[in-house]
Amino acid sequence: MGVLKRFEQRLEGLVNGTFAKVFKSEVQPVEIAGALQRECDNNASIWNRDRTVVPNDFIVELSAPDHERLSPYSGQLGDELAGLVRDYAKQQRYTFMGPIKVHLEKADDLDTGLYRVRSRTLASSTSQSAEPSQGPAGLGAAGRPGGYGYPPPAYGAGTPGGVPPMPAAPPPGMAPGTNRPPAASRPPAAAGPLSGAQVRRWIEINGTRHQISRPTLVLGRSTEADVRIDDPGVSRRHCEIRTGTPSTIQDLGSTNGIVVDGQHTTRATLRDGSRIVVGSTTIVYRQAEG
């Protein structure tokens, strides 16, 4: 059973169904959970062959109406989301510099149903400094100096099982201050994404892989859809993936819309690892050369 599905099942049993009522707002827990997984993937720092460090401190910014609905449950929801991040990291063999925390905050510039996820890597209080830890690129985990910049919380003595010390230098063969080999040893950049080779494309739904072997792929609840999704929140012809450079996804006038990498949209560009949420189902888009 996937990490996201286990997360959903745990939520269903909380507070005698209170979460189910609260989450009738446009922002769904599984959308936030998928965005946290994506945040880990996008900000993973490879220290050596056996260690890849990912953020451990997250802020989920919500619109004022969504924050008002969810804030009474922020403690329980934060714990569940932190548990999901921990499970996902174990599955991907990621490690952390300190305890995992997930905070909910209000953002007045967001409309109902929209949200942002920010993250940083914070070392535990056993480190020399309480400032956000600087990864190999000298940036916070969110790709900005010092992470997202709010004061670090007073963490405990470290994560269960301990965390190996941070290396003093980048891994062998890596250019100083980066996660990449020196420029002289890198091959020239390709003219475009996945250019010059045949591209394989597929989607993964609940652990099942569906190859994309045609220019368009319709997803929906109807038996006439190219990929049928048995989910009451999915329309008969919900959305369509269009292959190309780049590939895109288009909403087909569905009732509940689509969410791509945490953003409600009607059309979006897809890249390898993009997460698409339709109804309560998460779809992962994949592509690779070969």
Number of strands: 16
Q: Compute the gyration radius: what is it?
A: 20 Å
Shape: globular
Gap from first CA to last CA: 29 Å
Based on the structure, what is the oligomeric state of the protein chains?
Answer: single chain
What is the H/E order? HHHEEEHHEEEEEEEEEEEEE
Average the pLDDT over all residues and give the rounded result. 73
Task: Estimate the strand proportion.
Answer: 25-35%
Strand order of the largest sheet: 7-6-16-15-12-13
The low-pLDDT segments are: 126-171, 175-196
Name the structural class: alpha+beta
What characterizes the major β-sheet? Answer: 6 strands, antiparallel
Helix content: 10-25%
Our count of helices gives 5
Protein name: DUF3662 and FHA domain-containing protein
Region (Disordered): 121-195
Biased composition (Pro residues): 162-174
Domain FHA: 217-265
Structure description:
Residues 162-174 have a biased composition (Pro residues). Residues 121-132 have a biased composition (Polar residues). Pfam families: FHA (PF00498), FhaA_N (PF12401). Residues 217-265 form the FHA domain. This is DUF3662 and FHA domain-containing protein. This protein is of the alpha+beta class and 290 residues long. It has five helices and 16 strands. The chain has helices spanning 3-12, 18-22, 29-42, 64-70, 74-92; strands at residues 45-48, 51-53, 57-62, 101-106, 115-120, 199-205, 208-211, 216-220, 227-228, 239-242, 248-251, 258-260, 263-265, 267-269, 275-278, 281-289. The strands form four sheets. Strands 7-6-16-15-12-13 form a six-stranded antiparallel β-sheet, with helices on one face. Strand 12 (258-260) and strand 13 (263-265) form a beta hairpin. Helix 1 runs antiparallel to helix 5 and helix 3 packs across helix 5. It is globular, with a radius of gyration of 20 Å. It starts with a helix and ends with a strand.
